[in-house]
Amino acid sequence: MATVSNVTQGTVFKGTGVVAGIRYAPAVWISPRPELPTAGDVVAEDLREAELERFKNAADVVAARLAERSEKAEGPAAEVLKATSGMVNDRGWRKAVNKGIKGGHPAEYAVVAATTKFISMFEAAGGIIAERTTDLRDIRDRVIAELRQEQEPGLPSVDGPVVLFADDLSPADTAALDTSLFVGLVTELGGPTSHTAIIARQLNVPCIVAAGHKIHEITAGTDVLVDGALGTITLGADAVEAAAMVEESLAAAARIAEWKGPAQTSDGHRVQLLANVQDGNGARQAATTEAEGVGLFRTELCFLSATEEPSVDEQAEVYAKVLSAFPKSKVVVRSLDAGSDKPVPFASMADEMNPALGVRGLRIARGNVELLTRQLDAVAKAVKILGRGDEAPTWVMAPMVATAYEAQWFAGMCRERGLIAGAMIEVPAAVLMADKIMPHLDFVSIGTNDLTQYTMAADRMSPQLAYLTDPWQPAVLRLIRHTCEEGRRFNTPVGVCGEAAADPLLALVLTGLGVNSLSAASTAIAAVGAQLSEVDFETCKKVAAAALDAEGATEARDAVRAVLAEVS
Ligand code: PEP
Ligand code: MG
Asked: Do the bridges between strand 12-14 and strand 232-235 make them parallel or antiparallel, or are there none, so unpaired?
């Protein structure tokens, strides 16, 4: 296909890469969203009943269509489609639309007004909830298109491989993707935890999010080279070179697919590779990979919509689902990390000025120790019911530990219940005080997402600050080095369970720094394991030294690539 674009050839656009892989294909844009109506004329009273009926029919059609697609899909894609269909059936939302219609608005405008209200509420909640506003806009647009009998907004029909561009992909569109045609995804908006990113990971389609408004300069039909690891979209690449890069990327993907654990470097230095999970389904999925256990069970994500604290028995049941997926291996349970971007209605503080620096994680237990002791009781109960012994150790760690006192306090409560006690190292103070903190604990696990946020004083949810909230920042790597040194001194195992552990190249650096275990999303495990198997431990140490000595995150990546090119 001819390359046509109104931007200079050779231009590189940059976003956040969320699924690795290189692809070269023409760009296509998602079908436009409907123009949103303005308030318009007031509907006469005697016509409002018919208007209510018209809305109901359109919403029912959209909900049924999404539910039907959900039945045809699998795994998270099916769940996302089901959840989106559920949103169209949401009683609160429908009630708000009906109220608008009864007040005299045409159905189309009543849909816009009600959705806008819900979007503001979701945005005010922030964090993961705010990322769900894409789903709301999506159902709004689908219902409006249906009301107008227009074509459903979303995926265009294509007859060959393309890279799909969009402002933000709706979960429903992403879940319905045919990956033999849509070989790459690029969105202007979205974050690494948005539904687009989650499903792209599941489908294993190279994907870049938060690429910025400038990508609208890329016109349909332009050949683009996307690199989902680097987060780059290059125009005007040499077609022959691009084809070679794609071939190498596909070969690497095949090596990853064939990789078998346990993870070790080419000369046999072992690193335990574990999975990050959030519920029984995720744990069962992780158990089908080469993960040797669970390195981070984010318990708060089980309770994001619970308005009341579940009882000890109810919690024990939830935890047992995860533990039983790994009956013969280690599972690290994290105590509730409620607050900030993970609001748990029964545990989080309302209206803090600065929630990331507020009462989150272990800090909540200071004012409500029973919340924590009941959770630990529930973990201990699940362990007992399942009869887990030394062959399947259950470790428990606290998030947001900042002082030696907190570590000692938490460890005491765990040990009273026969649980192995640890702490996340994600507050810079905990790194600096590692020599005082580690003696109280059996293990530590570095949360690079928050450690980076707090070290760089940059909000991890801010797309504008993505260049700072990058775990390749040498400042963060130096803190990890210190933690590993202290871990060796005190014989305390040091793991990493933040997103850094899911980056194969960074995993080499972490291994070189002396990290004992890496815990990542199940979908990232094979890529990390395959990368480790290709280099020896000496090379890991060399890349670690190069990254530590770099001036910034980009330079650290480049320095590591240069060392690898030299040794290969
Ligand atoms: C982290 O901060 O790196 C971490 C693993 O915890 P979370 O992302 O859940 O805050
Ligand atoms: Mg954290």
From this structure: antiparallel
> What's the confidence (pLDDT) of residue 2?
37
Q: Is residue 563 pLDDT above 70, yes or no?
A: yes
- Whether residues 98 and 77 share a domain: the answer is yes
pTM for the full model? Answer: 0.71
Is residue 562 a part of any domain in this protein?
no
292 and 272 in contact (C-beta within 8 Å)?
Answer: yes
Kindly state if the Cβ of 448 falls inside 6 Å of ligand 1: yes
On whether both 176 and 268 belong to a single domain, the answer is: no
Q: What is the whole-number distance in angstroms between the Cα of residue 76 and the centre of ligand 1?
A: 21
CA distance 235 to 255: 28
* Last residue within a domain, chosen from 251, 278, 293: 251
425 CA distance to ligand 1 middle (Å)? 10
Q: Cis omega before residue 262 (within 30°)? A: yes
Mode of pairing for the β-strands spanning 207-209 and 16-19: antiparallel
The tally of domains found in the chain comes to 3
- 118 and 166, same domain (yes or no): no
Beta carbon of 360 within 6 Å of any ligand 1 atom: no
- Please state the atom number of ligand 1 nearest to the C-alpha of residue 500: 3
User: Are both 245 and 367 inside the same structural domain?
Assistant: no
Domain presence at residue 488:
yes
Give mean pLDDT, residues 282-288: 92
| Most informative mutation of 298, 455, 456 for ligand 1 (most atoms within 8 A of CB) | 298
Helix locations, 103-170, DSSP H: 107-125, 127-131, 133-147
> So what's the pLDDT on residue 435?
98
Calculated CA dihedral for residues 230, 235, 241, 242, nearest 10 degrees: 60
- What would the pLDDT profile of 304-333 be if each residue is shown by its tens digit? 878 899 999 999 999 999 999 999 999 999
Quick: pLDDT tens for 111-149: 999 999 999 988 888 777 777 788 899 899 999 999 999
Task: Check if 426 has its Cβ closer than 6 Å to any atom of ligand 1.
Answer: yes
The radius of gyration of the chain from alpha carbons, rounded to an integer in Å, stands at: 25
Confirm whether 501 is domain-assigned: yes
Active site positions, annotated: 195, 497
Q: Do 282 and 422 belong together in one domain?
A: yes
CA-nearest residue for atom 10, ligand 1, is 450
One domain, residues 176 and 313: no
Residue 24 within any structural domain of the chain: yes
pLDDT single digits (tens) 255-274: 998 999 999 999 999 999 99
pLDDT in tens, 374-416: 999 999 999 999 999 999 999 999 999 999 999 999 999 999 9
What's the rounded mean pLDDT across residues 77-95? 88
Same domain, 369 and 506: yes
- Nearest residue CA, atom 9 of ligand 1? 298
φ, ψ for residue 129, nearest 5 deg: -60, -40
Range of the domain at 217: 12-32+155-251
